[in-house]
Structures
1.
Amino acid sequence: MISEPFAIGDSLLHRADPAVKITGALLLTLIIAVSSSLATPVAGLVLGLMLAAGARLPLGPLYKRLLAVNLFILLLWITLPLTGGGEAITPLGPLDLSSRGIELALLITFKTNGIVLILTALTATSSILEIGHSLERLHLPHKLILLLLTTYRYLGLIEQEYQRLRRSAALRCFSTSTNLHTYRTYGYLIGMTLIRSYDRSRRIHKAMLMRGFQGHFPLLALQATRPADLLLLLFFLACGTGLALLPVFW
Amino acid sequence: MECVKSPCSLELRDITFSYPGHQQPVFSGLDFQLCNEKIGLVGDNGSGKTTLLQIMVGLLKPDAGKIIFNGRVMENEKDFFRLRRKVGMLFQNAEDQLFCPSVLEDVAFGPLNLGQSQEEAREISISTLKRVGLSGYENRITHRLSGGEKRLVSLATVLAMEPSILLMDEPTNDLDHDGRHRLLDILTGLDQAFLLISHDWDFLAQLCNGFYGLDHGRLLKSDTLQVHQHRHAHPLGEQGHHHDHSK
């Protein structure tokens, strides 16, 4: 089941048009991702923190999300300073501690955290339903949006079906171990889940045909862009320009 | 049997159907006509009730025979598209019928497909939800509804298309006592012709004015409804139900 811990709230960012937020998030994260100087990612991280505070994101889930990301970053900190090349600061056993490696690790850390914060504050504050609709308004391919929305609708159900099969296996004293019986049983479980999902998709297609489906999935308009949203778009544009020009003046 | 006065009729003529890989056909030479009636259909599991409904609306293609809607033989998918604008079907599993993320979108899907504008579709969806007693459910997430709520939303998605014939496949499944009562009230108020599959005899008896049984691929009409009163004891007496003998 997909939980959307950040989607509920009534901050300014929650109420803003998701299409504008997605555009802003794309612009800002792209600029941060491709920058090679440290100034832009640092400013991006500050902006991300400000947006997260502005959206009044719940701290618990936010920490969890950042922790997951930074575990990967930790791996980079273990390897990059020793393998980054460039000027050696001090020898560490057979390896050298490299300044270039440390700089790179620092850059990636700022970039990643800034991007995660911006994406969380701007896109996770809309429900997947709203995001789907906004992508439609941004003229993304209709089929992709349909995939997103139906996946969202049916993922939980497919998981339920899988769990039901697992429970029925467990009720007949199935326990996992490293043997052929376990592999075969898991093969059956996955196979049955696939078959059931396929059968279900056929039934859903029939239900859609019964309601006049002819290949085009109409979406009921949810939001429209308001003047306040245009102001927000201007704000994102200004931030983007600032971030892009920062290394020039730093 | 002609039904001239009826504004809308759906007829099966000499239908033969078998599933691929099965020797025994489900139907051979089956005839059926639905005019302005409210028909109840009973039959054992696997007797082909659901198959019959799907043949009627072109979701399954018969090996032989004709489907005639309002005097016209339905031949291709385009014909059936026109038929489906007028014939609504309530599926056995509400989970299959509700494929949109939110309730309002699901109800609006049909009207939008029929070419209504966004405003019209929104309006008719809201009023249909009100009709089935689900006002205020518009923005609820479909997959988080209870079983009974899903069933009623499914009914709303069909009614929003304003069909002149309704086909319902075991609509009382997974409904509790209250849900069943609500569904009964809503269906009693319908003026459409319908074909209702159910194992729930009492439910059929209260709604239908004609009954068919499906047995070994044959439809048997049964016009007589025998009403009898009975008394029975329940465990859990403090939560017992009451029989309404005035009806």
Note: Helices of chain B lie at 49-56, 77-86, 94-97, 103-113, 118-131, 147-159, 177-188, 201-207.
2.
Amino acid sequence: MIYSVQHVSTVTYAAPVTQAQFNLRLAPWPWRGQELHRHTLKITPLPDVRKDQIGPYCVNTTHVGFTSAIDSLEVVSEFTVAIEPSPVPDDGPSAAQVRAEALEVNSLSALSPAPYLFASRIAGIDSDIGEWANGHLLSDAGIVASAASLMRAINGQFTYREGVTSSSTPPEQAFASREGVCQDFAHVMIMALRSHGIPAAYVSGYLRTLPPPGKPKLVGADAMHAWVNVWCGLDLGWIGFDPTNDCLARDDHILIGMGRDYADVSPIDGTFIGDAPQTMVSSVDVTQAS
Amino acid sequence: MTGQGVAPDELPQVTDQLAPEPRANPLTRYAPPDDAADIFASSARVTRKAWQSYAAGLVNQSHGDLAALQPYLDSHVEDLGLAFRLTGDEQERSWPLNPMPIFIGAKEWDTIAEGLIQRADLLERLIADMYGPQQLVRDGHLPAAVVSGSGEFARRLVGAPPSSGHFLNVYAVDLARGPSGEWRVLADRVRFPVGIGYVLENRQVIGRATGGLLNSVGVRSQVGFFDAFREGIAANCRRADPRLALLTPGRFAQSYPEQAHLARHLGFSLVEGRDLTVREDKLFMRTIAGLKQIDGLWRWVSTRDLDPLSFDARSQIGVPNLIAAAANGLVLANWPGVGVVESRAMPAFLPRLARTLLGETLKLPNAATWWCGGETEREQVLANFDSLVISSAFRRPVTGLPDGRTRAGASLDPAERAELERGIAQRPIDYCAQEIVSLSTTPVLSEGRFEPRGFTLRAFLARDGNGDWEVLQGGFARVSQRGDLHTSLMGLGDISTDLCIVEPRPSAVPEAMLPPAKLEIRRDQGLLSSQAADNLFWLGRYGERAHQTVRIVRALCEQVATAGSALSANTTLIRLSNLLRSLGAVPKKSIGWEPSRLAGEALGGNEQPGSVRALAEREQRIAQLLRDRLTHDSWRAIQRSMLTYVPGDIDSMMIACDRLIERHAALSWLLADGMSRGSAWRFLDLGMRLERGAMLLQAVQALVPGSASAADLSALLDLIDGQMLYRSRYLTMPYIAPVFDMVLLDPVQPRGLAYQLVRIEDHLSAIPPLQADGMLEPPLRLARQIRVGLEGLDANVLDGATLDTLRSDLAELSELIGKRYFLHDDDALGKAPVRTLA
């Protein structure tokens, strides 16, 4: 399956701001089953400084800086990617087994489990969420089945509602009110897994916009999407679970980056000097090329 | 010694403080429960002599009343402005200091020091591996989760080591002395060596309060250490004569007073994130003379907050792109991310890592530690639960330890224990356990007697100019009233104690005789950041506004005293109260109030922004930001609390006004006399002059709205202390034109308007210019215009419109000064805050 993606983000300021600098995390990270054909990042106005950096998690960061004042920023990210559907995994080892195996990996690389075991800035260890997940994660079933059952619980018990949360709402609040958007669902699932010692990571990316014939349109397709990568033991490694759509990320999901939570992979953040109010709008278009 | 209140015939002959027959040596009666576990009782002969001599000296000095020593020492603590905050404190607390230091013999200390240096080397190599090849993790010597579990591990910095080659420049270690005299490491502090500034100050207080007592005992000096530390940072910088700064999170930080002391002592500029900016991967400080490059930064801001573009995007106290500057040669001490070795789990691996990295065993063991992430270790911990303390491995709140605090296994009730065991089963990686370390005791002076108290010690190391570790000859001990010494600095009820290293044969060369180092003589004033200039300017303004308001209140009280308090018959009273109203010193709705009520409100009102109390509080708050720039004496004068008076009682308020005016005079003198005539002094004086001029114009307009009585004009003359001069000049009652001439136009009248403008112009022409084109800077141009304009005025035809123009000119001048000096001119939007988009 080949997809063409166009993602346009526009930031506007009520008055010019100086010393504006941004981190853009929009270039797809190389991932198993994903072949990137080309990627362009068009930035208007033209920045005075532009540096591409790798990491620190599975994420490409483009740092841009402006020496003169700007009153708006437009970032157009375009790429084409071929996706090879990943095979349906077997159930894998039990959660307890995964917990033990995670400690056997002698590596700190961005793909190893260790960086994704602990509380991060947004996705902490929360005993309420951990207890809520007991029924799914204390079982002897394989981790893939357990994580899928947790995913199904979030999908079934939580209401997808835009506007009730923002990118800065703590996931604990989404958990308490049982509503939110993909970002909240992903964070809650990550926190539940980590509370049980299972490595879990936040994935940002895109969904195919148009469903295959006879299938409903996926939720979250007109913006950047978020789902969860669960480390399923030494053999299976990372497997994507999408709690918003209650499905595995196999061929409808295009991965841009993986980190501990949203903060590690947020598509755009930065600093500037000034008091001007800012607004950001973005639009995503994913078309199927073949 | 003065102020002890002893009758002359009781004065002892203090010729030798270590006289052979001191009053009963209080340490002979000191009886700790276990001699071996007391650092004095178990001390060797030479050291014991130091303890005893010192204690005897204390007795002699306090004329036999040891209880009198504490308040005396406390007053020295206060004089030095030694203070700290507990989390959540609004006000700073003064620093509790025990007059009896701890003495350790040179030989024992040198052995400890060897162990400390070995540990510093070990941590340096360990950190270098974690941020470099990560071979220790790959080879299984260190579990990956022990690294990634620490919130201090900065993945972004992996593979980008410091260009200086040093991750650590300064290092603090907490030590405990066990019951049989063996030393053990309790904690490593590589992020911030909290307490290092207090060591300096403790020694200063003890030195001041006890005269030559320490010298006579033969104690190693600490002076060289701080020079070595400075050189250690400077040596890593690329420029030969580097500019160094201390980055503070701001005055609300727990150890802000300490940071200010250190900056002053070391000659570092004390800066906050907003004073700094990164341009083309170099770090600059915003100063009144433009951007100045900084070569080395001692950071007291946590890694996470250091750079919003590299770490937490929400940070408001960091410097965007600081890490890029660090990659380009900026020296950061200590390097960000080093805190990864501070986790409680790390000591579990250090004995093994010492063998792997150094091929040595640890000379100073740490308290035995088990990380529950290992299966065998976890089983061991659960089996020995009652004889261990259990803690959160990475200091986060975890199940069973909700506040992240350490608990003794034996102290848990069954429910708590079950909860903790459940947590350990679910996330074993979050827990570790330590053997229980019991502490040795030391004699602490308490109500005139020495009592045994448990203590821990903090030692400090710094790299010198050659990159070698130097150990501070001394340190900082904490004794606890409650036996709980787990907080990072001081807990409630903790007392600090100086640590002295006793040299058996005091070195032959007294310190003062050391050959002076070859230093280039220089007279520059150091950098004045735009921020500090801004604060000094406003310190001057608020101080003067408070002072002038007091003078108006005093004039009001005097009117009441001489003419009675009937408002309707007395235009002067009405005009003075209008003036207070227009200054915001009394509420708008105060029309018709009794003068005594007005005066009370203007002095001590809590609601009004212009009351003397409110202005003094603002002055104090600004002064806190300037700790590193004010002398101790002026600092103290500013921090004194408001005077008391009886509300409603004119006499007591008049006395309070007199005192406040005296105090202000003393402070002005301290500032004027004590500050070197650099830019800092100029900005302070500039603020004061500008405020005085503006207040004067306001007073003139309120008291002489067209016509005026002799009483109105007398009140005006009082505001500038001009009564006497007027009488000697004119030998008649006050008339408008001659009073106006004195108050506004006469350039030799130090409290008059014209003189203020002369001073303002002088300051503005002395401050370094930014413009290279030789043109006048806008503030100077305007100041000169105003001054020349005043020269051309005639007091006989001075009208309201002219006064209005003068007032608005002064307001514009203040704005221009702000624009030109307090903001950097390429920040077109002014001093707008750094905003984040996240």
Note: The first strand of chain B starts at residue 83 and ends at 84.
